[in-house]
Amino acid sequence: MIKDVTDLHVYQRSMALILPMKRLVSLLPKNEYTMRDQCTKTMYRIPATIAEGWGKKHSEKEFKRFLEMALGSSDEIITHVRMVNICKFSRVKPETCDALIREYKIVSKELTNLIKKWKNFQ
């Protein structure tokens, strides 16, 4: 039974991705301020939005709305990591980007499933 937001696997996974994303951001050139900023904001936004939605879980509509926002952020960060990969920064390995994209695709899939099946989890 799910008693707390920390029991949600998608929340755990999104939290676990913060450190790998921070490492990626630290490898970006300092003059890539916008990309660094967007990646940083988005990586924190995903678990924070899931947690905010959890606080409104008694309203299925509200909870799902927050999950949908987290899904949008997850899809957004995939795009940011793809942009990093396309720019071919010398300190960033393509394999690092590929691994992060795979992980965030799982986050997006888990969020989609949770949105569809929330009543079954309660």
TrEMBL record:
A Pfam match: 23S_rRNA_IVP
Name under which the protein is recorded: Four helix bundle protein
Organism: Candidatus Uhrbacteria bacterium RIFCSPLOWO2_01_FULL_47_24
Lineage: Bacteria, Candidatus Uhriibacteriota
